[in-house]
Specification:
By secondary structure, the protein is an alpha/beta fold. It is about 40% helix and about 20% strand. The chain folds into 2 domains: about 1-40 and about 275-375, Glycerate kinase, domain 1 (Rossmann fold); about 50-270, Glycerate kinase, domain 2 (Alpha-Beta Complex).
């Protein structure tokens, strides 16, 4: 009997590997003879590095990089496949969580720290780069990231501009003459859970700018700047972005990675699931247990439980979902093929206590679920 455990992280509570281990302990309590395969997953946002490192037997490395306002901060990223590949979460350096409320202003922020992490990995010999791009504080089309890799952004007088959101509209030329040579040698894969284009009413500035502190006037300024950078990509670099799905992710970093690094943008879940060899784990499985912190209407749109259901359904493997909170709209997942969804919280309880006891609750609920499933089987 093979049981595959393939959860996302429980946000701000447990990492995906920790969730998988807690569920595994619950399975062992109920079914000692079960073959357990843990496949911690992510969708390109928080926890992507930890999930891939766990799945591939890699390690985390530490360095100092710039935060969105160019202040030095301690960061980590993952190395795997014998150090030939790296996984970087842009939010670790360039995320909104790095800023206080009064510091949120996408005209002033930059993805430089993300570029510094990429550069560090390239200089370690990494030639396959996975970049998760959720949770950004920036709307700079990736010019901060590119600046850290050697690109320069010049104004009409030939002066070098600071690589922030407000500089985008002043760029009249992109100088590619001193780009780090390893950029052209590496393969870049972008893990994203959104498909917004760079520009327009569904684009980076209009949809996500206000979440990062942009006023309506700022949104208009950022939109003009993004449009100017897109023009510069074409005229200075021969790169046409157009309406590339995912180009607007992370304030245009998706498009920026495609333009500056030749990156391919992929579904975050699919990219991580492929690296974690989820499909191989599902072969011959009797049951899959997945989950995330909250399962609701948004879960069906590119989130881990929905992706697990889709892949398991193709192999006729039943799926059970576990979550800290479950909304009535989770029925949409059941209609797509999930057997059942359970909240792990045993009753009315303070949120902080629920988070503190999440491992305990996961083990208890899993044990109960497996007992019922075995009886039914």
């Amino acid at each position: 009997m093979r049981i595959v455990i393939a959860p996302n992280a429980f946000k701000e509570c447990l990492s995906a590997p920790d969730v998988a281990e807690a569920i595994a302990q619950g399975v062992k309590c109920a079914c000692t003879e079960a073959e357990i395969i843990k496949v911690p997953l992510a969708d390109g946002g928080d926890g992507t590095a930890e999930a891939l490192v766990a799945a591939r037997g890699g390690r985390m490395v530490e360095m100092t990089a710039s935060d969105p306002l160019m202040r030095p901060v301690d960061v980590q990223y993952g190395l795997f496949d014998d150090g030939k590949a790296a996984v970087i979460e842009m939010a670790i350096a360039s995320g909104l969580w790095r800023l206080n409320e009064d510091e949120k202003n996408p005209l002033k922020t930059t993805t430089s720290g993300t570029g510094e992490m990429i550069r560090d990995a390239l200089e370690r010999g990494v030639r396959t780069m996975v970049v998760g791009i959720g949770g950004s504080a920036t709307t700079d089309a990736g010019i901060g990231m590119a600046n850290a890799l050697g690109y320069k952004f010049l104004d009409a007088n030939g002066n070098t501009l600071p690589p922030t959101g407000e500089s985008m509209n002043a760029v009249t030329h992109i100088d590619s003459s001193n780009v780090h040579p390893a950029v052209s040698e590496a393969t870049f894969l972008v893990a994203s859970d959104v498909t917004n284009p760079l520009l327009g009413v569904e684009g980076a500035a209009s949809v996500y700018g206000p979440q990062k502190g942009a006023t309506p006037d700022m949104v208009e300024t950022l939109e003009q700047g993004l449009s100017n950078i897109e023009k510069r990509w074409y005229e200075d670099m021969g790169v046409r972005i157009g309406d590339m799905p995912g180009g607007g992710a992370a304030g245009g970093l998706g498009a920026g990675l495609a333009a500056f690094c030749g990156a391919e943008i992929r579904s975050g879940f699919d990219l991580v699931a492929d690296y974690a060899k989820l499909d191989e784990a599902l072969d011959g499985a009797s049951l899959v247990i997945t989950g995330e912190g909250k399962i609701d209407a948004s879960t069906q749109f590119g989130k881990v439980p929905a992706g697990v259901v889709k892949r398991a359904k193709m192999k006729c493997v039943p799926v059970i979902g576990l979550a800290g909170a479950v909304s009535s709209s989770s029925a949409s997942l059941e209609s797509q093929g999930m057997m059942a969804v359970f909240s792990i919280v045993p009753g009315p309880i303070d949120l902080q206590e629920a988070m503190n006891r999440a491992e305990e609750f996961l083990q208890q609920t899993t044990k109960q679920v497996i007992n019922i499933w075995r009886y039914k089987a």
